[in-house]
Amino acid sequence: MKALLAKARQFMVNEDGPTATEYAVMLALIIIVALAAITLLGQKVNTIFSNVESTLPDGT
C-alpha cells in the first residue's frame, strides 16, 4: 500500500503529465488550423482550375 501511495505522490509531483497535455492541446490546435487552411485554399484552387479549364479550347 505504501508503494502505491509513493507512486501516487510521485505522479502528482511529476511534471511530465501536464507537459504532455500541453503538447496534445497545441497539436490539436495546429491540426484544426491546418484543416481550415486546406479547406479554404482547396476551394480557391478548385475555382482557379475551373476558370482555367473553361478558358482553354476543346481538344477536338
Question: How would you describe this protein?
Answer:
- This protein is mainly α and 60 residues long.
- The protein is 87% helix and 0% strand.
- The chain has two helices and no strands.
* Element pattern in H and E: HH
Number of helices: 2
- Contiguous uncertain segments of 5+ residues: none
Oligomer: single chain
General form: rod-shaped
From the alpha carbons, calculate the radius of gyration and give it in angstroms.
26 Å
Query: In whole angstroms, how far apart are the ends?
Result: 83 Å
Helix content: over 70%
Largest sheet: none
The overall pLDDT, averaged over residues, is 86
Beta-strand segment tally = 0
Structural class of the helices, strands and pairings? mainly alpha
Strand content: under 5%
Structural descriptors:
single chain; 60 residues; mainly alpha; 2 helices
Question: Layout of helices and strands, plus pairs?
Answer:
Elements: H1 2-13, H2 16-55
What's the quick description here?
The chain has 60 residues and is an all-alpha fold. It has 2 helices and no strands.
